[in-house]
Write a structure and sequence with these properties.
This protein has 425 residues and is α+β, with helices and mostly antiparallel strands. 41% of the residues lie in helices and 15% in strands. The two termini are 21 Å apart.
Length: 425
């Protein structure tokens, strides 16, 4: 019961979207954009699985769930183990695990979900480490970091998600800027009347940390402690102010920026992978181009946004031959052929670095742009220190942009507040 109470109290990163394989309509990011919730499926009758089979709960629905079921069936059949794939929403997955535990029912053998769910389940002892015999170095560093807790990896990496991209309207800009200097110059030149050069979620930590990473900074240091009172943070705040000059006059919300870009009234937008389907539906007013975020000339580094992942997680109750079968499925999904199908059939960026050069990635503009920055992207570990750092960043961004606080003072306040938060954990 204590574990269940703790599970209910935990929450994902502040300001972080909870992407899924479902098309998402952006909403205001004071908590950041989240996909529309899918109704839980627990009221529906579920087929039973053979005693020797495995039960896999996945955060997916509709066509994405059907595609995932086909993929799992194809890869598990040669293993000789039937797998029942049950769709859940992100909210229902954790709630249903809690409800089943209270009812004395066993948990699912496997879970396909993000680092947020991984963190929640790991903290309440519902998972076991991923003993899949896969080498971490074969995968994107960000997806490994996002699954690592207490020195162990708690899921088999399947895909990267939650990344930011640079979108551009080809009717206003025929190419994407390659550097932040070029983005500043071109976005200001395209700002006139009721048309603006750049829209973004200006006061959200996920967006800010992309610039911070571009300057070689990070929200956390090597010891997993906040590291925000740095010259890199000050430089990133300076850049944020320079970029903000090409946006709509304040106050301007994330939602307003999305609307301007969809209407063809903004040349560039910095937004997440979860928004792509929404933008592509506006073909009459938006000729959509997609590119990686630009390079920061002062460092030569990409402004790489933080990246989360999707994982196959293993119930703490799995053992013996069933655990061996579950880990074999994980290896099949993480192999080059399985990863290419993750890209082709689910539209997700593979976690396996070797799969980033496969045709399903290179022939997909959004995945190709994401792949170009993926190796440089930091992870989003499900740690209280990162939640504290993001929570400390957010309230300082608006005062800096409005000229009410200096960049140096903001960096100092971020560090003090993040450190106090960590100490209170």
């Amino acid at each position: 019961m204590a574990a269940l109470a703790a599970l209910a109290a935990c929450s994902p990163l502040p300001g972080a979207p909870t992407p899924s394989t479902l098309p998402a309509s952006p909403v205001a990011p004071t908590a950041a954009p989240r996909p529309t919730a899918v109704p839980p499926v627990t009221a529906l009758p579920q087929p039973t699985v053979a005693p020797s089979g495995l039960v896999l709960w996945v955060v997916a629905a509709g066509p994405e769930l059907a595609a995932l079921q086909r993929l799992v069936a194809d890869l598990s059949t040669p293993l000789g183990v039937p797998v029942l794939v049950v769709g859940k929403s992100a909210d229902a997955l954790v709630a249903d695990i809690r409800a089943d535990a209270l009812a004395g029912l066993p948990p699912p053998d496997l879970i396909w979900a993000s680092q947020d769910e991984l963190g929640l389940l790991q903290r309440t002892n519902m998972l076991q480490p991923a003993n899949d015999q896969l080498h971490d170095g074969a995968f994107l560093p960000a997806v490994i970091a996002s699954a690592r807790v207490a020195g162990q990896r708690w899921g088999t990496p399947l895909a990267a998600q939650g990344y930011l991209l640079l979108f551009y309207n080809r009717k206003l800009a025929n190419s994407a800027p390659r550097t932040t200097d070029e983005l500043i110059t071109r976005s200001r030149a395209l700002t006139a009347g009721d048309t603006f050069g750049l829209v973004a979620a200006w006061v959200e930590p996920r967006w800010f940390t992309a610039w911070l990473n571009g300057y070689g900074g990070a929200a956390l240091d090597a010891n997993d402690q906040p590291a925000l009172n740095t010259p890199q943070t000050v430089a990133a705040l300076n850049l944020l102010k320079e970029l903000r000059a090409a946006g709509p006059p304040p106050p301007s919300t994330y939602q307003e920026g999305v609307q301007l870009f969809r209407q063809g009234r903004a040349a560039f937008a910095i937004d997440g992978d979860w928004a792509i389907a929404n933008y592509r539906s506006y073909t009459d007013t938006l000729d959509l181009g997609i590119a990686p975020l630009p390079v920061v000339p002062a460092t030569g580094r990409l402004a790489a946004p933080g990246v989360g992942g999707l994982y196959l997680m293993y119930s703490g109750t799995l053992s013996g031959a069933r655990a061996d079968s579950a880990q074999a499925l994980g290896r099949a999904l993480a192999a080059p052929a399985g990863q290419a199908r993750v890209a082709a059939e689910l539209g997700l960026l593979p976690a396996l670095q070797a799969a980033l050069a496969s045709p399903p990635v290179t022939n997909n503009p959004a995945l190709a742009a994401a792949a170009a920055q993926a190796a440089a992207a930091p992870g989003l570990p499900p740690s209280s220190a990162l939640r504290c750092a993001w929570a400390a960043i957010q309230p300082q961004l608006a005062p800096v942009l409005l000229g009410d606080q200096t960049q140096a003072a903001a960096a100092s306040a971020m560090q003090a507040n993040a450190a106090a938060c960590v100490a209170a954990q």
